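The authors assume throughout that readers already know how a fold can be written as discrete tokens. The format is easy to grasp once an entry is in front of the reader. For illustration, here is how one protein appears when written out as sequence plus structure tokens:
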Amino acid sequence: MVNRKTALVTGGSRGIGRAIVELLAAQGYRVMFTYLENRAGADEVVSAVISAGGLAQAVQADAAETGTAPTVVRAVIDAWGRLDVLVNNAGTHLPGVTIADTPVAEWDRIIRTNLYGPFHLVQAVLPHMREQGEGNIVNVSSNVTQRFPAGYGAYTVSKSALDTMTRILSKEEGPNGIRVNAVAPGPIRTDMLAEALDGLDSDKARAFTASVPLRRAGEPAEIAQAIAFLVSDAASYMTGQVVYVNGGGPGG
């Protein structure tokens, strides 16, 4: 049977977000995704999905801006009439900077993108999901919520708060048929990981990867597969969970 469900994915023009868009589209979802500045990358993702027989549309939006969430959600509803899945993937960081040295503007940017962005989108999608009597929300967290690494204060605070919001929201919306979970990636081969490792000397960078029990960084597709599982009927009794996809967890 053809899957006529729809999904909204934030930050879908590259890395983990692109992998999520492409996998959900391959599974039959009609996918709307946001991008911040990478229009060329977004167009490439749309072309790749269409070439593979799927359906995707891209919309420019800044997750940190309060007023964008209702507009993006309305774009999905106007295009396809319903919204079944929200994946809050867009995120940002400031690697290697202590809390004491974090500029206030940077702290604000990270919290607004990583925490307030998902908050505003959740508020925008819930009326539609409640009306449908079902829905899935997946927040992309991070393995830092287990490690609490020095030099990642704002990022870790934002993701820890996102985990808390995930758990509370699952209890509030479960009676409405809406499941809410999070996926917490470990080191994944993305631009964000490359930026983080650039701040380390080569020996420390190798030691960080070697500290993962599986002895490698993960691939974006491995995160996408976990998210696809969580929004599927196979996970119909899972809600309020933070699922760590981290190769066993880096120790550094």
Notes: The radius of gyration is 17 Å. The longest strand covers residues 178-185.
